[in-house]
Amino acid sequence: MSQQQDFADRPPWTRPAFIASATLVLIVIAAGALIAVLGADDSRDNNADDTPPASPAPADPAPSPDQALPTAIPTTAPDGVRWELVGPLPVPVSDTAGPTQITDTGASGFAHTPEGALIAAAQISTRASYSLGREHWEPTLEHQFVPSPDRDRMLATLRNTDTSPSDPGSLSHIAGFQYLSYTPDTAVIGLVLRVPSAGTPRYHVLSTTLLWRDGDWRMQAPPGGAWASVNRVTNDLTGVVEWGAR
Questions:
Q1: Contacts of 223 (CB under 8 A, 6+ apart)
Q2: Residue 236: what are its φ and ψ, rounded to 5°?
Q3: Do 150 and 221 form a contact (C-beta atoms < 8 A)?
Q4: Which member of 123, 152, 185, 195 lies 3.0 to 4.6 Å from 202 by CB, making a disulfide possible if both were Cys?
Q5: What is the pTM of this model?
Q6: Contact at 8 Å (CB) between 243 and 178?
């Protein structure tokens, strides 16, 4: 048998050409697998770089300051109130409702509560009374009333009027209160004043309006700058809470 025939009779996988081809195929397959692996890693890296980090879940919105403010209207006289004199007139002072700052000419720093509004109504309206003299009503009107044409008209009227201190025996004193409406921004409170009288007691109900401004209760001047526009005389104290110096 010739050498050529022997080569031809050999199985094809033992032939050099076949072995070389097979080797080349294996190399190509291995290279392809390596490229695929590297490509997958690069894809993962790229995706990691391109994907923004997850944002934390937004926190619940902060509650409105007004949500925690008390709005229950007192139906009895506030506890812990003492009465101090401004001239001949008594005014209420509370360690919890204010005022926190008291000077010779004014009082400020009232709690943002219904009780704080009540104390402010009594303090500010009393100090704004012409009967106490200019050293009291002028700074009170200038600093503790909400600026308005009515406030300016009241100031102008008092400055052009004889406002010498009145006889203490002729002055009305706080005898009670009645909330007409209340929100954390606006309080309308009827202050009941007892008029000195030898016979049947007479009362005035002064409707005061307070606005929460710049971190404190401030009074709104009555229409036209005259207390008479928000004052009524009555003997009917239905719904009034008795309150005042004893």
A1: 150, 229, 230
A2: -95, 110
A3: yes
A4: 195
A5: 0.72
A6: no
* DSSP bridge pairs for 85: 90
* DSSP H or E stretch at residue 146: none
Residue in this structure with the two tokens 């009107």, named with its chain if needed: 141
Kindly state the tokens that stand for 113: 């509560």
Distance, in Å, from the CA atom of 15 to the CA atom of 20, rounded to the nearest integer, reads 9
Give the tokens for residue 126: 């009393």
Each residue's pLDDT tens digit, 9-54: 444 444 444 334 433 333 333 334 333 433 444 444 444 455 444 4
> What six digits make up the tokens of 136?
């009291």
Which residue type does 135 have? E
**Interior/surface letters 12-29, b for 16+ CB within 10 angstroms, e for the rest:** eeeeeeeeeeeeeeeeee
CA nearest to 178, candidates 75, 69, 71: 75
- pLDDT digit string (tens) for 146-182? 999 999 999 999 999 876 666 666 789 999 999 999 9
Helices of type H across the chain: 3-9, 16-50, 114-127, 134-144, 149-159
24 HSE (CA, 13 A, CB side): 6
Rounding to the nearest 10 degrees, give the CA dihedral for residues 190, 195, 201, 207: -10
Distance CA 237, CA 193 (A): 11
Nearest alpha carbon to residue 109 among 240, 34, 218? 218
